[in-house]
Amino acid sequence: MVDSIPALISIRTATGEVEMVNRQCLDYTGMTVDQLKNWPEAVHPDDRADTIARWKYAIESGNPLDTEVRARRADGMYRWFQCRALPLRDTEGRIIRWHALYVDIEDRRRAEEALRSSEHQLRLVVDSIPALVSTMTPAGDTETVNEQLVAYTGQSPEELKNWPEKVHPEDRARIADRWRRSVETGNPYDAEERVRRADGVYRWFHTRGLPIRDTEGHIVRWCLLLTDIEDRRQAEQALRASEHHLRLMTETIPALVWRTTPDGEIDYVNRRVLEYTGKPLEDFGNDGWLQLLHPDDVDPTIRIWRQNTQTGEPHQVTYRLRRADGAYRWFDVRGEPLRDNEGRVVQWYGICIDVEDRRRTEEALRNTQDRLSVASQIATVGELAASIAHEVNQPLTAVVSNGNACLRWLSAQPPNLAKAVEAAERIVRDGKDAGEVVRRIRALFKRAAREEVPLDLNEVIAEVLRLLQSETAKRRVIVETDLGQDLAPVNGDRVQLQQLILNLLLNGIEAMDPVIDHPKRLFIRSKRESDDNVLVEIQDSGVGLKDPDTVFDAFFTTKENGMGMGLAICRSIVQAHNGRLWAASGQGPGATFCFTLPLQLSPMS
Ligand code: ADP
Q1: What is the pLDDT of residues 396-406, one digit of tens each?
Q2: How far away, in angstroms, is 504 Cα from ligand 1 center?
Q3: Phi/psi at 18 (5° precision)
């Protein structure tokens, strides 16, 4: 039995001499029992002294021996053995013999060695990965931590066992709760928390934990990985802040802001648009926004917008947009395409600015001006009337008092005829005086009505254009001229001709007010038509004329505040200058007004 045990057995005397060994022992060492009496020979030189000392101690103390030792095999190779020896005692307790058992543990030691080295490798990896790592027991307590975690927190692995202390107080309860749930359910752990650095600064970490299970599925430990996300979080925060800032800006600027896809589908509008129109964003897609325009503005607007989205040219229109309460207000609209690096349009951005109030103010201003000029006319007439009354009153008063005097002389007893004749003569004189006053006033009016001088018509046109400069600029009217250089002077009244041209130009400008789909163009041409005639043409790109004749009728007007007198006066001025004024239906949009004036005018009566 002893020989067939897969281990080496030796029996020693109470003093430790080898007495007997089993077969395995002889086979392994290749030595005889006699040779084995000198047993340290079979022990590895490095282990020899230690083993001898241990035996010595065991024999002296009587304690069992337990040690590991390398024993030489027959072929000279050393293998590790675990040596256990127990003393055998007699009835009095004296040691009579030692029984020693050597079990070959070479393979186990190698495995242990390999494990240790692989563990070491792993440790190295875990310690050098740029993240904090810890393992936890299945119950959720800290087991091990890597060096990074120690270095980051400045705490020893022992101190780190109380890990909630390292977490920001505000995150502690949340994190503890999460961790408890993972430990209870075995579900992976995933959370973000602030962890205190050695210097006391908290940084954000993303912690992920996975359970490690044995073959039966029981969790044997948890492995936690903490990644520093502070920088990422800060960048995210900065991005969020700048996004918020931008959004705030688009939401608060006092204009309607919109964005469309490259082909013109609205995909964003700011809050002001929603508030103004009272519609949700969905109502703007699929050309829904066109329903919010004034019916008269839809066609021109859509034409321009289609054209702009096709060519990528900046978009610029004016239209009336319906407010939530149904009222239409005028808006100036601008759109610009945003392009990518290759120049392709990726988006359109645009704004609509409410110009209703400005328009109303302008209109009010115009009305005020009109009223003012009427008022000043009335004032002038009033002044004139007062001075006429004054001048006429004086002789009339004298006539009345002389008449009375004459009556008194005639009714005296006896009548004083000589005095009566005198008074009657004074009446005649004063009456003549009054007539003279009236005549003078008429003459005054005649002179004021026409003062003929030789005039350069181009100069008159230029004067009027200068007067209108701010008006044309304000209404974005493009003025073009083609003034003939060979015009001889005409005889005429400067103020009246100025009035004529001013009237025609103003009519043209006003006729272009509703235009939004093409440029507002005002064209003035002067040329010598024949030897004795000059022709002036004023062409606009406005709404045009329905009937070129009726417009000259007095009181014909299509304007809310119009008098319908402008063209009638114009015609009478031209006729007074022996010229002709007519309207022609021009080519393209708009109207053309023409007048001719003779180069030589006969003096007016
Ligand atoms: P008012 O301008 O006060 O209405 P006018 O005699 O100047 O009086 O003009 C009469 C009408 O003729 C205008 O109301 C307008 O309908 C029409 N009209 C005048 N000029 C033009 C023009 N250039 N284009 C289109 N219509 C015009």
Answers
A1: 888 899 999 99
A2: 9
A3: -70, 130
